Please model this.
Amino acid sequence: MISSTLPLGIVDELQGPEVSMLLSFFDRWIGDRVLKLDDCPEYCAPFLERAPSAIRRLLAKLHLKAILHPDRVTLSLWAMDSGRAVLPEEFRRLIGKLEERSLVPNLYDFQAVTDATIEALQECTVALFGDLFDPAAVRSIHGLPTVPFLTDWSTDIDVSFQGGGTQINYSDPYRWLHLPAHRQAYERTCPRPGRVPHYHRLFCLVDLPHEFVHCLQALAGLKEPRPSFYSWMTEHDASVLALSLLSAVARRETAKGPTTRLFPLEGTYEEALMEMVATTVGLDATMTGPQQAGFAMWRDSCGLQPPDCFPLAGESVTALAGVASAHFKWRLAVEGGRDSDAGLDEELRTLFAQPARWAPETCGSTTLAALHYGPEHRTLEGWARPVGLARATELGRQWE
Ligand SMILES: [Zn+2]
Model:
C-alpha cells in the first residue's frame, strides 16, 4: 500500500475555473501518467498552445510539475516534494479529489458566467453590428435562472438553455442534480457522468451565444416562412453563428489582457472549445444512419428542411429536445465556426438578410453554401485528426 505524499488538501482551496482546467488537462493523459502530445487531436491544439502558463501555476500549487521527455512530445507528472514521478494511484486520487471539489455547491457560479458571457456578446454585437440591431435593445438582453416545470415531460427543457425576446434562461445543475430525472437529463449529453457541473459550465460558453442569437432574431423581428412550434431554420442560424460569435468575443477579451472576468485563466476559452468539439465527436459516433442523413439534409438546406429523423414539429417536445437534437446544433456550431470578424460578418449578414434568407430558391445557393464549406471551416473529421509530430514538438517547447 503506497501512501500518497501529494498535498491533496490544497485542491479544496482551488477556484472553479482552476479545478475545471486541471480536469480538462488531465483528461488528455493516457495510462494515468503520460500526455502524448503527438496523439492529441487537433481540437486540443489551441488549448495546449494557450493554457500551459496557467496549468504550470496550478501544478505548482499542488507541488507538481510536468516534465518533457527527451522525445520532446511526451509529458509526465512529477511530485516536486519527493523528486519522483507521480504514481498511478496518486494520479487517480488527484482526479477523484478534483471531481469531488467540482461538485461542491456553487463552486461554479452560473449566474456570473451567464452575465459575463452576455455582456461580452453585447459589446461585440454593438461594435460589429450596431447598424443592424438597436444597441439599447441589444444591451437589454439579460440572463435569468430557469424555473423548472419539474414534470416528467419537461426535464430536457428544465436542464437546457432557452433564449428569446431579451431574456436567456440558464439551468443551474447544482440546484437540480439531486432529482433523478433531471440528473439523467443532464448526463445524457455529458461525456462523464458525475461531472455535470464541470461540463455544464464549459458548454454554457458555447450555448449562451446560440441563445443570444435567438434574442437577436427576436429583436430583428425574424419571421419564418413556415412558423412551427420548434423551428429548425432559426436553430440552424443560431447554431452556425454560435462559435463564430464566441471566437469574436475571445479575440476582444484577449486584447484586454491575459485574463478577464469571462476567461479568468489563460486558456479558458480554448478549454471550452476543446471540450465542446470532443463531446461533439463522441456524440457523432453514436448517431444512426438516418440521423446522419437528417443532419446533412438540415445543414445543406440551410435549415429549410427539418431533419426527417425527428417527428414533425410540434408532435413531441421531448423527442425533439433529445440527444440527437443537441448534437446536431453543436455539430453545426463546431463545423460552422469562423475565426475572423470578416467571417462572422459574412455569416451574420447573410443569415439576417431578409427576405432573401427565407426564400426557398436561395437555400442551397452559393452564398449560403459558403456558410458551411468555406476555407475557414473545419469538419469534425478534421478536428479529430491527431496533431502530428511537427505540431506536437512545437507544443512541447512550452514545457522545456
Ligand atoms: Zn436554439
User: Anything to note?
Assistant: Residues 312-321 have pLDDT under 50 and may be disordered. Residues 210, 214, 235, 238 surround zinc ion (CB under 6 Å).
